Amino acid sequence: MPLWLAILLPILLAYLAGATPFGWLAGKARGLDLREHGSGNIGATNAMRVLGRGLGLPVFGLDVLKGLLPVLGAAWWSEAHPGFAGHPLAAQSTPVLAGLSAVLGHTFTFWLGFKGGKGVATSAGVMLGLAPSALLAAVIVWAVGLKTCRYVSLSSILAGWTLPIAVTIHAWHHGRWNVPLVTLALLIAVLVTHRHRSNLSRIAAGTEPKIGGPKSRPQHPPDGPR
Questions:
Q1: CA distance 19 to 67
Q2: pLDDT 10s digits, 128-177
Q3: Rounded to whole angstroms, how far apart are CA atoms 128 and 122?
Q4: pTM of the model
Q5: What confidence score (pLDDT) does residue 222 get?
Q6: Whether the predicted pLDDT of 71 surpasses 50
Q7: Roughly what angle, to the nearest 10 degrees, separates helices 179-195 and 120-130?
Q8: Residue-wise DSSP of 36-105
C-alpha cells in the first residue's frame, strides 16, 4: 500500500466514525428529531436537555469515543504499517489528521445533509487521545466557566481556546514541538467558536438557556407521530 493511501485510509474511517449522529439516533428512538427541539442541535448538550440524562449521557460518551477511537486507531496504524518507516512527519500527522476528520464528521455529517453537532464532545475525545494534559486544562476551564456563567456554550468556547494555549505551553516547557497538534488545537478552537456563534447571539440577547434554568420540552409528545 502506498504511503498516501496509508495516510488517507484512517482519515476516511475517522470521518465515517465522527459522522455517526448518535444524538439524532437517540432522538429518533424517542420518536422526535432533535433538530426541531431545544437548541436544534444533535449534540450531547441538547440531547441531555431534551431527552434527559438517561439518553443524554450515553450520547455524550459515544460522541467522545468517536473522537478517541479513530485517533488511537490511526496512531496504531502509523506505527504498525511499514509504509510509514522513514517518514516521521507522516506518522506524527496521521493521528492528528484523523482527529480533525472525526470532528469534521461530527459537525458536518453526510447523513444529515452535512449539518451536525458543535464538536465539543468529539473534540474532547480527540484531545484525550492526543494531549490528555491539555484536555484536563480545558475541562477545568469549562467547569469554572460553567460554575461562573452557567452557559454551556460560553464555557465550551473558553475550553476550546484553552486547548491551543495548553498544547503550546506543554510543547515549550518540554522543548518538543508538535506543529500538527498545535495546529489541530487551534482549528478546534476556531471551529467550536464558529459553531457556537448563534449561542453567542442568544447570550447577547438574553435568550440563551442557562444550566439550572427551565428545561426545553418537546413540541410534540415523544411517542407521537412526526
A1: 10
A2: 999 999 999 999 999 999 999 999 999 999 999 999 999 999 989 878 88
A3: 10
A4: 0.88
A5: 39
A6: yes
A7: 170
A8: GSTTS--SHHHHHHHH-HHHHHHHHHHHHHHHHHHHHHHHHHHHH-GGGTT-HHHHHHHHHHHHHHHHHH
Are 194 and 161 spatial neighbours (Cβ–Cβ below 8 Å)? no
Distance, CA of 34 to CA of 41 (rounded, Å): 6
Q: Which cell is 70 given?
A: 479513530
Q: Which three cell numbers mark 190?
A: 476556531
Give how far Cα 111 sits from Cα of 3, 15, 43, 108, 117, Å. 29, 12, 14, 9, 12
Q: At 213, is the pLDDT very low, low, confident or very high (cuts 50, 70, 90)?
A: low
Q: pLDDT tens-digit profile of 7-31? A: 999 999 999 999 999 999 999 999 9
Residue type, 210: K
Contact 110, 19 (CB under 8 A): yes
Q: Are 122 and 103 in contact (CB under 8 A)?
A: yes
Say if CB 157 and CB 192 are below 8 A apart: yes
Residue environment code for 42-81, b if the CB has 16+ CB neighbours within 10 A, otherwise e: bbbbbbbbbbeeebbeebbebbbbbbbbbbebbbebbeeb
- Residue labelled with grid coordinates 426545553: 216
- φ, ψ for residue 155 (rounded to 5)? -65, -40
Whether the predicted pLDDT of 95 surpasses 70: yes
